[in-house]
Design goal:
alpha/beta, about 425 residues, 11 helices, 2 domains, about 25% strand, about 30% helix
Amino acid sequence: MSARGNRAAAEAVSPLPSCIHGDAAFARENKLIHGDNLPVMRALTHTHAGAFRAIYMDPPFNSGRSFKEYRDVWQRADWRSMMRDRMRVMHTLLADDGALFAEIDDTELGTMLELCDTIFGPENRVSIITVVRSAATGHKTINRGPVNVTDFLVLVAKNRSKWKPNAIVRTREGRDPAYSLYLENPTEAPHAWRFSPLAQFVAQGLGKGSAKTAAKDLGRTRFEREMTRFSLDRAAHVARFAQPRFEAVSLEARALIEESRAHPNRTFVLERKGRKPFILRGGNRVLSLADKVRVVNGKKEIVEPVTNVWDDIKFQGIANEGGVTFSRNKKPERLVERVLEMTTSAGDLVLDPFLGSGTTAAVAQKMGRRYLGIESGEAFDSMCVPRMKRVVDGRDFTGISRSRSWQGGGGFAVEKA
């Protein structure tokens, strides 16, 4: 397109004068724009090229269904063309160290992957995250064949070598049964460490002669709760053995593994600068549960690294999140929070070109990110704007408000393209 054509395109979608809610100082970047996202994003390339650290999009899935809010019925070629044009512009808007998260189901997953590989390059595809959104219950149980209970997040970086994700963890329900050893004397020198079965130690503390007796007398469920409570309270005493990856460690570590195998009743320690000690017994690594325990919302929890399967974010019970009802299509604030936790920091700029009910803007506001959301439908006036007013005014107590200690603040601008 010529320079004149670019100017004409920008002028064609120049927003009407802004309506500002809250602190005007925040409205320069925090914007809700009502209009077709393609011309709006094309206009943004003149002012925001390379500016967005993260783009989260939840586009039409081409499900073949019609909803109250919109009709999700496309010819496949039309859907592909619609997404291709928009993703090309998103590539321009994304920062060199930024990432795109595209939520989709299996209807157009293949097309989405092909578009990501074509526009961003297959070398920049990071992951396909499986998001478990429901269970095979109720009317779904009468279906023949696999019951569809998942969405997918296609994660692609602008430049994978420059994208540096934040290390994030998820809480684990209950205890990790792999940590089945009790270290009786963790404060003594490792060569003197004594290990015994955790279940046996807990049972004796409950006045029972064995774990089997404790489970029988107390009930397996109660005994498991006692095991979990004990493990969290005395995490430094709880451990597991894990086989090390021999090919992935240093020559010094390999030599120590061999020595440890030769002396299975001794504990060996290799100190490593800037890293945790490499502790071995019987050729296995000794891992402490204390390394996995964090205080989350004032409560001790076992945490573990996030994988490419997200089955811990509840889609049920979110009907009232944000004070808006968006049947079968609203995403949990916790889902978008994890996306932004992974790839942004406070003050970074986030784009959602299919804003829907306003979830991304609400989460970004509560997390201290800057944001720009685009929505073309009636949901903009009926959901997005009222929702964000409640967030800024401190009247939204749903979603991640409690975990983020959100009490309101900030501001945003409303523009009509």
